[in-house]
Amino acid sequence: MVYALLLPVELAALAFFSYGINYLVGKVIRRPVFYYLLVMPGTIFHELSHLLGCLVLGVRVGEVHLFRVRHMSDGTVTLGSVEHFGAGPVRSFLIGIAPIPMISAFIFLAWHLLVPAGSGAGEVARSPGFYGYVILAFVLGMALCPSRQDVRGFVEFILAAGLLGGIMALIIRLASRGNDLSGAWHAVDSALKWMASALGVVGGTLGAVLLVVLIVSAVSFRTRRAG
Predict the structure, then answer these.
(1) Cβ neighbours of residue 73 under 8 Å, at least 6 residues apart?
(2) pLDDT tens digits for 5-29?
(3) Contact 25, 142 (CB under 8 A)
(4) How far apart are the first and last CA of the chain?
(5) Torsion of CA 196, 161, 148, 25, to 10 degrees
């Protein structure tokens, strides 16, 4: 049951790390054109996640802009969009948060493919794949966070998902005491544990990236003040 309660915390942490990286990178990179080039790959992946969510949920799709810089009347900037129709509140929300699980899964897959398994810290640090993984996590991690349109009801969803997951896990555990449901409980617990471990890897990576970006931004700020 602890893993069902841990997952919402990890999802919230991922969004926080992504927002933090985005904000600091925007402060360090003063020229918009360089910032847009940096976020373009992740933005394309972000919008593709929305598009895939529409297709999986059977929602009709309109115009798709995987990367298009638009300056809105309220002063904000949008970098891409996927127009959809007739989704309703539930499916619209699921489409809105699709980049979080999609990008997290891709980063976790990259961890297994690029980082040597069972190696010491020194061997990992000498591996080119490790640095490729860090760069990939940095670029995609900035695109993981939902936009203002995507984030509607995000907090409520995280809390509801954690509560529902905990209740379901508790019901299975209580039911297994008088019945032979130990196999079902073990399967659910193992699945939740795997998901929590995967999100832990992604969260740990983005947390480390955020720390590095924070240090770089602090040095950049002090250099500008001194100059």
Answers:
(1) none
(2) 677 788 888 888 999 999 899 888 8
(3) yes
(4) 54
(5) -10
Q: CA 49 → CA 46, 55, 59, 151, 180, distances in Å?
A: 5, 10, 14, 15, 40
Q: Mean pLDDT across the chain, nearest whole number?
A: 82
pLDDT category at 101 given cuts 50, 70, 90 is confident
Residues 179-195 pLDDT 10s: 555 566 677 777 778 88
- CA trace torsion 16, 21, 26, 28 (10° rounding): 140
Record the pTM.
Answer: 0.79
Q: Strand locations in the chain, DSSP E?
A: 60-65, 70-71, 77-78, 81-85
CA angle 96, 143, 6 (to 5 degrees): 70
Ordered by start, the domain boundaries in the chain are: 2-30+99-226
Exposed (0-12), middle (13-18) or buried (19+): which is 89, by Cβ within 10 Å? Answer: exposed
